[in-house]
Structure formats: structure tokens, C-alpha cells
Amino acid sequence: MSFRQISEIAGSAMAAQTVRLNTIASNLANAQSAAGTEAEAYHARKPVFAALAARGGDGNGMRVQVLDVVQSTEPLRKVHEPDNPLADEEGMVYYPNVSPVAEMTDMMAASRAFETNVEVMTRVRGMQQSLLRMGKEG
């Protein structure tokens, strides 16, 4: 596997983790938003990733691609708050299906995955520079 292929894999993984982190940030930002109906309530979003063969499909190069960002199918939180101006006729208010604890855990995992790929890119660059130095010495 070439340095270029390694860099493409790590770069695509970093881009995917960026989407994941942005999605998590959106979920956390909307975690406490309230709505008067299920349809109006914020639904947590999750990115869907796939590992795809790079150009040519020779098996030597892969890349990570974000296929879609989908809404979570977990049920929304319904809370009886008849005094809330957003409450429906039954006094129910709908809150997102976002678990801040789960989102923070996912954020830590995404951040570590991103950092790992940064480290891969750094090591590839270091190996390339070592090869160039060897070429100058020889």
C-alpha cells in the first residue's frame, strides 16, 4: 500500500469523523428543545458510514464515505406539562430523543478516531521525509 493510499484512507476517515462530530453537536444543541407535536420535535440524527474500495477496486485502497445522515427511530420523550405554552390539547410536550450522556460518549469516540487518523497522517509524512533524507545521503 502506498503512502498516497494510506493518506487517502486517513483523510476520508477524518472527513467522516468531522460529519459525525457535527451531527453530535447538532444533537446536543437541540437536546432540550420542546415541541407541541411529535412531527415538530427534533429527532436525533446519526451518520451512516461505509468502507468503499478506492478507484479501480483493486483492494489496495479503501476510503470511508458518509452515505447519509438519518433520523433516530428511538421514541421521543413525552412529558405532561399542561402549563407549557407548547403543550398539546392533552397537556403533552415532546422533547428530542437525544441522550446527552450517549452523545458525549460518542463525541469522545469520534474525537479519538479523528486524532488517530491525524497521527497516521503525521507518521506517513515522517516516513516520507525519512525516505527523502535517505535519497539525499545516498
UniProtKB/TrEMBL annotation:
GO cellular component: bacterial-type flagellum basal body, rod
Domain Flagellar basal-body/hook protein C-terminal span(s) in chain numbering: 90-134
GO biological process, one term: bacterial-type flagellum-dependent swarming motility
Keyword set, alphabetical order: Bacterial flagellum, Cell projection, Cilium, Flagellum
Keyword Secreted (UniProt): no
Cellular localisation: Bacterial flagellum basal body
Keyword Ribonucleoprotein: no
A Pfam family recorded for this sequence: Flg_bbr_C
Predominant subcellular localization, coarse grouping: other
Family statement drawn from the similarity comment of this UniProt entry: Belongs to the flagella basal body rod proteins family.
Summary of subunit composition and partner proteins: The basal body constitutes a major portion of the flagellar organelle and consists of four rings (L,P,S, and M) mounted on a central rod. The rod consists of about 26 subunits of FlgG in the distal portion, and FlgB, FlgC and FlgF are thought to build up the proximal portion of the rod with about 6 subunits each.
Name of the protein: Flagellar basal-body rod protein FlgC
Species of the source: Rubrivivax gelatinosus (Rhodocyclus gelatinosus)
